[in-house]
TrEMBL record:
It catalyses: a hydroperoxide + 2 glutathione = an alcohol + glutathione disulfide + H2O. SUPFAM superfamilies: Thioredoxin-like. Residues 2-168 form the Thioredoxin domain. Keywords: Antioxidant, Oxidoreductase, Peroxidase, Redox-active center. Pfam families: Redoxin. Thiol-specific peroxidase that catalyzes the reduction of hydrogen peroxide and organic hydroperoxides to water and alcohols, respectively. Plays a role in cell protection against oxidative stress by detoxifying peroxides. Its EC number is 1.11.1.27. This is Glutathione-dependent peroxiredoxin. It comes from the Bacteria. The keyword Oxidoreductase applies.
């Protein structure tokens, strides 16, 4: 399992872009994790699924709400990673009004989740292999802090915890 001091896994996530620009076409675009995190401080949080209750009611809204505070604390970007496809993540970004604040990154085949060792098997609930709920502060591609939730909990991966760690 990934731990503080480790480098993020060399994987590719997908991001749905609604506007063409900066080398991105409209639709799904690859995001090379190593290149995208190089030289930046990133508040990364991961969750089991788009449009799920806790994720939609608390997790994403907290990061959207605290966007300015996190930026003021030195965070360059906020990433939300979930085992969904880029189209779903794009629709969820619109629903959550996350545009320009939280990058909604799709881990469609759970490659990032598997590489971090932070998977959650929800096969019995008809959802397959997903990501565990967690957050991490990433500095120049390396994990500076890691907050992994216990099963069924939402206590340590929230935006407020991340803000405290970013300020430290």
């Amino acid at each position: 399992m990934i731990k503080v001091g480790d480098t993020l896994p060399a994987t590719t996530l997908m991001e749905y872009s609604e506007v063409e620009g900066e080398g991105c076409s409209i639709g799904p675009n690859p995001v090379d994790v190593a290149k995208a995190s190089a030289g930046k401080t990133i508040a990364l949080f991961a969750l089991p699924g788009a449009f799920t209750p806790t994720c939609s009611a608390q997790h994403v809204p907290g990061y959207v709400k605290h966007f300015d505070d996190l930026k003021a604390a030195g965070v360059d970007e906020i990433w939300c990673v979930s085992v969904n496809d880029a189209f779903v993540m794009g629709a969820w970004a619109r629903d959550q009004k996350a545009g320009g604040k939280v990058r909604m990154l799709a881990d469609g085949s759970a490659d990032f989740a598997k590489a971090t060792g932070l998977t959650l098997d929800l096969t019995a609930r008809g959802m397959g292999l997903r990501s565990n709920r967690y957050s991490m502060l990433v500095k120049d591609g390396k994990v500076a802090s890691l907050n992994i939730e216990a099963p069924g909990k939402f206590e340590v991966s929230n935006a407020e915890t991340m803000l405290t760690q970013a300020k430290a």
